[in-house]
Amino acid sequence: MRQKNMLIPTLRNVGAEAEMVSHRLMLRAGMIRQLAAGVYTYLPLAYRTLRKVEQIVREEMDRIGAQELLLPAINPAELWQESGRWDDYGPELIHFQDRHERDFLLGPTHEEVITDLVRNEVNSYKKLPMTLYQIQTKYRDERRPRSGLLRGREFLMKDAYSFHVDWESLDKTYRDMYQAYIRIFTRLGLDFRAVEADSGAMGGEENHEFMVLSDSGEDTLALCSSCQYAANVETAKVGRDETKAPDMAEVPKPEKLSTPGASTIDEVIQMLDKQPEQLIKSLLFTVDGDPVLVLVRGDHEVNEIKVKQALGAETCHLADDQTVNRVTGAPTGFAGPLGLKEAVRVVADHAVYEMAEAVTGANEADAHLLHVAPGRDFQVDLYADIRTVQEGDACPHCGEPIRFAKGIEVGHVFKLGTRYSDSMNATFLDQEGKEGRLIMGCYGIGISRLVAATVEQSHDDNGIIWPVGAAPYHVHLIAVNLKDETQSRLADQLYERLRADGVEVLYDNRQDRAGVKFKDSDLLGIPLRITVGKTAAEGKVEYKFRRSGKSGTLTTEELIKKLPDLLNRADQQQ
């Protein structure tokens, strides 16, 4: 494509509202323009990249036998009410009424629609397993859509759904999809990790997130420094030594001390001259409507997701001050496991089991207890891993230290089980003519988000650095001086030759200074730049890798011959 007449409105600066690197660079590179908060127009370069990503995803989905279809973006409220998500999904739902005052929504995801389709069209085990996917625009009313394509209210997504007669079949498709995702992100030249994650509002069983590693990521990842263990910090398991119960034979009886105004861990350790690991933090939660006392060591943080999972609960949140006062007899900040006013279930982290004695709240305003021994002075109903992992903790698989990294979620795979087939009565007839519930899997990739995440991971001070797999064009051909007949003729000939050979080439044929062209080329980030300049009279051109900046000179015939190798090397240049 000749650049002179292309819609590539590059900018030198953008407004302060563009906070993320990908947002700023894609605006500057003339790839996107904002129509409203979280709603963007994709200009030609961005649209080409979007289609590149789509095609890679489509090829890998087809490779594992998934069938492409297209579901309606407009969903009737009845389906979401049937699944229970009309009220549960939250304010991100964009809903409206038609002229007949019937409720609809713009689909943020399509579990309900696909389940309705399959329950009506597939009723025999003979058709199963089946995997269906689509690439479609989704709609979510994000609270703070200020990160460009990373968090928009309208975005492009690949969502796939599989249907099975048993868990063994789901396991196989899950593994196939997991490997397909690895191939997709590898083909796009990304540095990524598959991490264990929480299913959130989607529901379901086992699931993994695929994270592009980037310092600008919103998610914190726990990665093992030795083995391949990786998890979102929200769900990362904490490895521990299998220790015996501590010896409490010489631990004194509990002693009450006055601690006026000391309602936080920091205030208690300063007043009593203790270390955080000598305290037990006691927090009252409301779990499925009932109060539960949760205990962790003072230097640890309670992980609500783990508490919820450990108790097999639907809901879990901190209790309000009124409930705390009723159960403990004290204001918030002075709770402890001894002397509760109401009998409640007590759940403690494994680290609490390993404490010989501790400081706890006294269930009395402005008072704490010393020498409290778990197991002697109070009983725990359940010990479990309920704290948030910390850097340096032992890996649950190999025991080596955990390190933290930032990541951007670009894909998620779920084992939904019967979450939707139960609520929506999606069944099939087995070999014996008996009715069974469909077992489901769900697999998503944020296509437009993936484009932005690529920029977040791959850029420098001069602009974007596209991996070959995602680049809008593979070669950027620049004629330094089009007024020079030799340069102009050689550039035109080379452009036509590259096009004839099927090379994706953007030809900068603008009547601009060389410096402007080179600066724009760096901003656009096309992997390989070919410059026709002073050596044109010798039939030679310069090539330069965008990623490394390494360059060289070749004749045009040598360039044509070596171009496949140069493009292969473009992603490898560091």
From TrEMBL:
One of its GO terms (cellular component) is cytosol. GO terms for molecular function: aminoacyl-tRNA deacylase activity; ATP binding; catalytic activity, acting on a protein; proline-tRNA ligase activity; transferase activity. Its EC number is 6.1.1.15. The keyword Cell membrane does not apply. Its main location: cytoplasm. Pfam families: HGTP_anticodon (PF03129), tRNA-synt_2b (PF00587), tRNA_edit (PF04073). It comes from the Bacteria. It catalyses: tRNA(Pro) + L-proline + ATP = L-prolyl-tRNA(Pro) + AMP + diphosphate. Keywords: Aminoacyl-tRNA synthetase, ATP-binding, Cytoplasm, Ligase, Nucleotide-binding, Protein biosynthesis. It is found in: Cytoplasm. GO terms for biological process: prolyl-tRNA aminoacylation. PROSITE patterns: AA_TRNA_LIGASE_II. Residues 38-467 form the Aminoacyl-transfer RNA synthetases class-II family profile domain. The keyword Cell inner membrane does not apply. Gene3D superfamilies: Anticodon-binding domain (3.40.50.800), Bira Bifunctional Protein, Domain 2 (3.30.930.10). Consists of three domains: the N-terminal catalytic domain, the editing domain and the C-terminal anticodon-binding domain. Belongs to the class-II aminoacyl-tRNA synthetase family. ProS type 1 subfamily. Homodimer. This is Proline--tRNA ligase. It comes from Melghirimyces thermohalophilus. The gene is proS.
